[in-house]
Amino acid sequence: MTTAEQSSSRVKGSETPQANHWLAVSAVALGTFLLVSAEQLPIGLLTSVGSALSVSEGTAGLMVTVPSLVAAFAAPLVPMLVRGLDRRILLIGLMALMTVSNVASALAPNFGVLVASRVVVGVAIGGFWAVASGLAVRLVAPESVPKATAIIFGGVGAANVFGVPLGTLVGDFAGWRVAFASVSALALIALVALLVVLPPLVASQPIRPRLLAEQFRNPGVRIGIIATVFIVFGHFSAYTFVSPALQKLSGIDESYVGPLLFGFGLAGMIGNFVAGSALSRRVHRSVLAIALALAVAMPLFALLGRTTITGIILLIVWGLAYGGVSVGLQTWMIKAAPQAVEAASSLWVAVFNLSIGLGALVGGLIVDALSVQGVLWLGGACALVAALAIWSARSNESLR
């Protein structure tokens, strides 16, 4: 999500920094990595948590659904509610919420308490991500904004591909409670880092409902939102249950799921860099290619992933395709709304998280009622709808 146009989106109340605060940029990137990792951590722990707390895998998927839905509403609401609060204080407070909520998750005596702790996680995710999305222009000189933005949102991209496999590996070796406790410990480190290196950040002009509503008048933004809804909803309806899919469909032992998801993450990072390079030349074609690749990868997993070898190969293909989603959709939104990046980004964060939550929720219902193959077919169908929407914007000059 990098572009020199970010520098034109400074809002009233921001001052050009006298020096580049690269340590602060890195601390914010660490924060975004931990928050998004915490959101998706339960994906690799569904089987173990469900077994320990006596709930089905579909019900356990609420651990992903709840914080994502809460984050979707928190993304625009937190900046509006805090209004003039120093953004430094806000970010530190949200990271403190993340630290405490994951301690509660690790100690939860039953599933109800665990889900309640995930509500707090959602507030922290939505608020932090929304504020961080426009923070680069507050921390570095204009000419360094693209690089700083890449670092901050690199935390989001890394979490999307590494958060789940790393959490799964910890859960496999030490138990799911230790996985949640580990996130809490890392969040505490991030909190201290923000406290030490983040400079005072006088509040910018707050995001207002009218400004968000105005974004829907922009055709490029509308299509970007539609594409985000279908791609993210479809992906997470299937990926939330990738652990049981690997075990039941491909016959892979549970002990190998963590390492395989790490391989998914590595493939995703490669996909991220490939997509980033392609996006610098052709935004529309690159995002269309990502959507089409997902539309093929998930159904193929349902059809052909019935052996260990084919299951692993198709998982890697899926990871390569999904790795370009975050950078692709973020770049699309910035290109579509160069004069309203903060508002468009806040809206995009809300829709992205809402789609994660709804995808996990619907996926859980399908897994409990039908099978894991059903969510793979749903994911492919949603990606195909997104591809059709993206294709319809082929004449939009700003997205070429």
Structural write-up:
- With 400 residues, the chain is mostly helical.
- The chain has one domain: Growth Hormone, Chain: A (Up-down Bundle), CATH 1.20.1250.
- It has 18 helices and no strands.
- The chain has helices at 22-40, 46-53, 57-60, 62-82, 87-107, 111-132, 136-139, 145-174, 176-197, 209-214, 219-239, 242-248, 257-279, 283-304, 308-322, 325-336, 341-369, 372-391.
- α14 packs antiparallel against α18.
- The radius of gyration is 20 Å and the shape is globular.
**What's the SSE pattern?**
HHHHHHHHHHHHHHHHHH
State the secondary-structure class. Answer: mainly alpha
Largest sheet: none
Relative strand content: under 5%
CATH-derived topology: Growth Hormone, Chain: A
CATH architecture: Up-down Bundle
Q: What is the count of helical runs?
A: 18
Find the CATH superfamily.
MFS general substrate transporter like domains
Highest-level CATH class: Mainly Alpha
Overall geometry: globular
Helix coverage percent:
over 70%
Number of strands: 0
GO molecular function: transmembrane transporter activity
Membrane topology: Multi-pass membrane protein
Pfam family, one: MFS_1
Subcellular location: Cell membrane
